Amino acid sequence: MGNVVYRVLLAIGVVMVMAADAAGAGVEAGSSCVLMEKSPATKWVEAYPIGNSRLGGMVYGGIADEEIQINEETFWAGGPYSNNNAGAVNHLAEIRSLVFSDRADEAEALLDSVYIPQAKGMPYLTLGSFHIKSAVNEAITEDYQRTLDLENAVALTRFKTGDVTISRTAFAAMGNDVIVVRIKSSETGALNFEVGHSGPLAAIVKARGSRLSATMKGTDHEGVKGVLTGVASVEVKLNGGGRVKAMNNVLKVEGATEAVLYIAAATNYVNYHDTGASAERRVDKALNSAVKKGYDMLMSEHQDRYQAQFKRVSIDLGGADNTSASTRERIASFATDNDPAMVALLFQYGRYLLISSSQPGGQPANLQGIWNNRVDPPWDGKYTININTEMNYWPAEVTSLGETAEPLFEMVRDLSETGAKTARELYGAKGWMAHHNTDLWRAAGPVDKAKYGIWPNGGAWLATHLWQHYLFTGDVNFLRRYYPVMKGAADFYLSFLVEDPRTGYLVTVPSMSPEHSYTNSWIIAGCTMDNQIARDAMTSVIEASEILNLSGEESYRDSLRNAVSRLAPMQVGRYGQLQEWTVDADSPTDRHRHVSHLYGLYPSNHISPYATPAAFAAAARTLTQRGDKATGWSIGWKVNLWARLLDGDHAYRIIRNMISLLPDDDSTGEYPDGRLYPNMFDSHPPFQIDGNFGVTAGVAEMLLQSHDGAVHLLPALPSNWQSGSVTGLKARGNFDVDMQWQDGQLLRANILSRIGGLLRIRSYVPLEGEGLVMASGECPNRLYDRSVVGEARVSDEYEAAWPVIRGVYEYDIETVAGQKVELKRKSMR
Question: For residue 686, is the peptide bond before it cis, meaning its omega torsion is within 30 degrees of 0?
Fold first, then answer.
């Protein structure tokens, strides 16, 4: 543990701040955009997260001891490394032969011995905590409240001790590399406290003048030497009297009325192969700049930058805000009160977390976003790319936060470099690939054991986000910039796919359906998910090449089309399920958390009620068989899947399963179905942030879809949300959509066309508006990207039933950039 000694002063203490204090207005505790508690956090999963992508803080709101736990996005264990086992490729032909001979257990054993490296990924680290300690008598404290205001991205703690009111306002300044904490007293000269540092890593702590700094070394891990240095510093400035001095590695504040703490942190990381920066100089620069600007300017810039993103979307699902209950109480009571405002809060909380953990120029949100208080976080806090990292970014485009995905795009570019070496050294393949995990150092080789790690589709799945960003924006320059990355993912499949002698189809081998099996080995050839991802990787490159009018690539596109045509079709098995594997081996009693073969339903678009009704019905049967209970991230996925199945009530049932209290990880026995901690972090358990992002995306998907040839308004509205409104959701084709509904039906919609083009609207009720015409034929706007996938092959042992689908009205309107389209439900008069 960090070695800091605190001397408690016999004086009046200190607290946290409220968004209201910062913004100059009161914050209503029960607002749909405010989390609130009536006591300090005693556990990490009760503290409130703040962040500006580079820095993360967990604010506890303590009274006599306030703790702010710090993360910096590049502080990881290890250093530049490769986890490709030399010589592994020499065994590939033997491994494939074993799989094709139905000796997968032998193939798995060989993979474990020659493919799995010693270095299985580096963990994300913490920089410890800054503590603000005083001698406040907690026994006489009154009117305590702490809040996290999502509209302003500000955490506020306030309480009264005797006749003195203390407040602390904390925010991670967007656009500035600091966390800011302002402490105010209602009585002149009443603030007396000490600032110190503690943490799980050994730290050199020094106090000089008004600055305290803690320096830590990144750890060695699995044979990889730690080469990063992390520095976290706090500068204290006083307003209205008092003094600050350095004593015994703490900062001592006496007789102050208002104190502002500026916290900065940095490492020597430059990129995945360069660690030559100076953490100390970076911290000095950030603190000097912040102190020069001062609290008011930092707050103003923070709110301008943050709200420019957050306020693009508003949501009202009906119901009355509970203005007196704490967030913990609201989670606990949701099973009985079904408060729609709680769902709206969870939706906006996901957007808040994404803005706070992923901004241009930074690192992508990892398994815990940017928040972690351990040196050994669950699953190392890495990037798990067999769904979890992708799920982090599902809300980005549809909830109008496209720029938050830029760090993901840049990580994909990095992986296209490291993954090219992996493709060549492990598989003798062209292009690039990555397995199911990566980290700050962009390792692309397999990790853990073969049964988890030999999954060659992680890079290609990540690359689909590049194509989706183009579909949402229509940005041809973006497509041109990232086309080589997309092409490299397709090139890998062209050289990696081999013919299965048992079926004649092209298959990925060795591979698996993530973390699942029907035999004593998980290693297989050509599972359904692999086929779907390979199809997406290659067809998106065909389309991109045509859009970019790349001459000389005609034969290349033909080779891609030929490979796609030789992939196995989706199959409906004897139980009416969508088959997870090429063999009909699914069990109707299987409750596995992964539903990997439904990738084609969501996030992809292979399964449609109109184009592939047999696969659509089979997907519904599969989800029903798998059940509604799952780990947190799987619940987040299932919300989206049921939304794509156009079943709003079932999607809402899944949301209800998510909003279930888990007080902490020690309480899982008493709360086996708990999936939200008191601070609304998602529980796997333990904490993974992907469930938060999955539910946010799912709510958006219930209200708006644009993947199947049209912009579908309110496609999966549950009966619980009878009246409400949403503004600012984004549809493919770069349309901004505002909607209002009443009595379970669309009332009106206003749509802004950002780039022009044909707008095709799909609605359950007839609409009217200037320029609307009834639609006919296929939609010519290719940004809607209806997938051309053949219907599933149905087992002879199953008599498939047609899915029951609500009738729709479809309309077209040609738009120009900047045009606003006003629609309303057609009158029955």
Answer: yes
DSSP state of 365: P
Tell me if 54 sits within 8 A of 177, measured CB to CB: yes
Which residues have a Cβ under 8 Å from the Cβ of 229 and sit 6 or more positions away? 215, 216, 217, 218, 267, 268, 279
Which secondary-structure segment (H or E) carries 234?
Answer: strand 229-239
User: Which amino acid is located at 170 in the chain?
Assistant: A
- Quote the CA–CA distance of 266 and 443 in Å, as a whole number: 22
CA distance linking residue 594 with residue 579, whole number of Å: 13
Q: How confident is the model at residue 153 (pLDDT cuts 50, 70, 90)?
A: very high
**Taking Cα atoms as reference points, which of 700, 818, 719, 822 lies closest to residue 761?**
822
531 with 568: CB under 8 angstroms? yes
What's the chain's average pLDDT? 94
d(CA 186, CA 163): 9
- The band of 31, judged by pLDDT with boundaries at 50, 70 and 90, is low
DSSP H helices, 454-581, are 458-473, 476-496, 528-547, 554-565
Write out the two tokens for 758: 């044909």
Residue 301 pLDDT > 70, yes or no?
yes
Q: Where are the alpha helices (DSSP H) in 358-404?
A: 388-392, 394-398
Q: Is the pLDDT of residue 11 over 90?
A: no
CA distances from 569 to 379, 665, 752, 791 (A): 34, 42, 38, 8
Distance CA 587, CA 577 (A): 9
C-beta of residue 521 within 8 angstroms of C-beta of residue 108: yes
- DSSP letters for 160-183: EETTEEEEEEEEE-TTSS-EEEEE
Q: How far apart are CA 122 and CA 76, in angstroms?
A: 7
Q: Is the predicted pLDDT of residue 14 greater than 60, yes or no? A: no
Residues 6 or more apart whose CB falls under 8 angstroms from that of 547 comprise 476, 479, 782
Peptide bond into 685 cis (omega under 30): yes
Q: How far apart are CA 366 and CA 282, in angstroms?
A: 23
**By C-alpha distance, which of 44, 48, 42 is closest to 62?**
42
- Per the CB < 8 A criterion, the answer to whether 715 and 659 are in contact is no
Distances 781 to 178, 466, 760, 815 between C-alpha atoms, Å: 44, 19, 8, 11
Residue keyed to tokens 């796919």 = 497
Q: Are 366 and 411 in contact (CB under 8 A)?
A: no
* C-beta of residue 445 within 8 angstroms of C-beta of residue 85: yes
Length of the chain, in residues: 829
- Per the CB < 8 A criterion, the answer to whether 268 and 276 are in contact is yes
> Sorting pLDDT into bands at 50, 70 and 90, what band is 28?
very low
| Token pair in block for residue 504 | 């004649």
Structure tokens at 770: 């200037």
Cα within 13 Å of Cα(53), Cβ side: 22
CA 752 to chain centre: 27
Q: If pLDDT is split at 50, 70 and 90, which confidence band does 322 have?
A: low
Name the DSSP class of 723.
S
First-to-last CA distance in the chain? Answer: 74
For residue 641, give the nearest of 821, 391, 402, 332 by alpha carbon: 391
pLDDT in tens, 65-98: 999 999 999 999 999 999 999 999 999 999 999 9
pLDDT level of residue 179 (50, 70, 90 thresholds) = very high
Residue 813 phi, psi dihedral angles, 5° rounding: -150, 130
Residues 367 and 358: beta-carbon distance below 8 Å: no
pLDDT at 321: 59
For residues 249-278, give the mean pLDDT: 98
Angle between helices 648-658 and 690-703 (to 10 degrees): 160
Assess contact for 544 and 556: CB atoms under 8 A. no
- Give dist(CA 258, CA 186) in Å, integer: 9
**For strand 250-256 and strand 191-198, is the pairing parallel, antiparallel, or unpaired?**
antiparallel
What six digits make up the tokens of 134? 């005083």
